[in-house]
Known about the structure:
Four copies of one chain form a homotetramer.
Chain A: H1 2-9, H2 20-46, H3 54-75, H4 82-104, H5 111-134
Amino acid sequence: MTHVTAMLQAHPKKDHGIDQEKLAACIAACFECSQTCTACADACLSEPMAGEMATCISTDLDCADICLTTGRILTRLTGENKAVVRAILQACREACRGCAQECESHAEMHEHCRLCAEACRRCEAACEELLSSLG
Amino acid sequence: MTHVTAMLQAHPKKDHGIDQEKLAACIAACFECSQTCTACADACLSEPMAGEMATCISTDLDCADICLTTGRILTRLTGENKAVVRAILQACREACRGCAQECESHAEMHEHCRLCAEACRRCEAACEELLSSLG
Amino acid sequence: MTHVTAMLQAHPKKDHGIDQEKLAACIAACFECSQTCTACADACLSEPMAGEMATCISTDLDCADICLTTGRILTRLTGENKAVVRAILQACREACRGCAQECESHAEMHEHCRLCAEACRRCEAACEELLSSLG
Amino acid sequence: MTHVTAMLQAHPKKDHGIDQEKLAACIAACFECSQTCTACADACLSEPMAGEMATCISTDLDCADICLTTGRILTRLTGENKAVVRAILQACREACRGCAQECESHAEMHEHCRLCAEACRRCEAACEELLSSLG
């Protein structure tokens, strides 16, 4: 998260009225969750019973894409379109919740699903926190 | 749109209860809008007064990312997570509306903004149509 | 492809020394191939023997990501970094070739793989053409 | 990088013959560089003389996209397409080198460019290291 915070500090529009710490935490959580979901989808695909993991893989891929886009949009402070920020945070929270639920149901069997569920819950919470602070 | 429709027809889960035509139209509109917003952001950046186009560029970039993610998620029928589909369509509609408004305000001056506003309005309408049909 | 061409025409840097028609064709092929590969990966995932399609799915996902990035980079004319354009075109050609080969081996069994192989071959050829014209 | 390593450890194909540590370092560097370049592009856009930063912004955006795609492809171990891995690493190294050079030329004036140049150099080095280890 260090580099995320450093870049926010160096931004000409850093006084944008959004809680800087929650913003940095959410950006970091989005990128982490996106990478983890990409890894989990691929790990599921390499399991002997990959066919039974189809829903999990698809859910992972959706979550990976939404988290990435959310992380990028939160990184951009120039446009200041609050309605879009709010809408993408809601979509991200929803995707993370769904993916966490799906992965939790395989967590006892697959360590990658357990780790992925944790990353999704962290990202869901970070989106929630940031959404609340936006008012 | 032909290739989008052909791929939907060839999908094992093509009977997923979503209006096939509206789905194909929305996927195609998302990819087209994403490419157009990417092009508009870059064209704005090459204008002599690029500095004055900062908001437009940032809005274009956000819209390009959201449209892409929306187009990808709509393309995936395996997961069947309706709540995520609905949330990303709402975010996409919001991003397209905001980007269309911004680009429309430069449409008389910049042909790329005029074309981009049109693509955004098409995508906004396609998201709206698909959302309504989801019930 | 119409909207790609229209946006290139409207770009302040349209006289950038790259063959305009080949550029438009390659951008359109990249976006089409990316959508098709995303659809093929998901269709494979919904097949009864999804487990046997693991390599195909993974190859599709890689190709979808590279095509998208290539389509976006080609859309940006402001930076004019020829070395990057060349390198990403080479990566895209390689990914399309590999994905076409993989999908062709399932083309008789799965219509989505047949269609995807075709899209990959078109994109491979478009990258090749553009690369040659860059000198 | 911790979560990247943990996910690699949990992957069924973790014995894929690629140096695990260099792979994890490169994935982490790609995601970090992508986020940093996205932030730098946006910060440049908010500078009073954004118009003069057009090349830097465009270079940042290209680098952000290539790093992301590279990070995702490296995360997928199922496909094992070495030729594609090599090609995307070469493209990423090229993009990072170019972006580092561009940002270094503004490093004295803009802290975000200084930080971004550092992230690009780290990612360039990580790609180089991984490429060498692939043989």
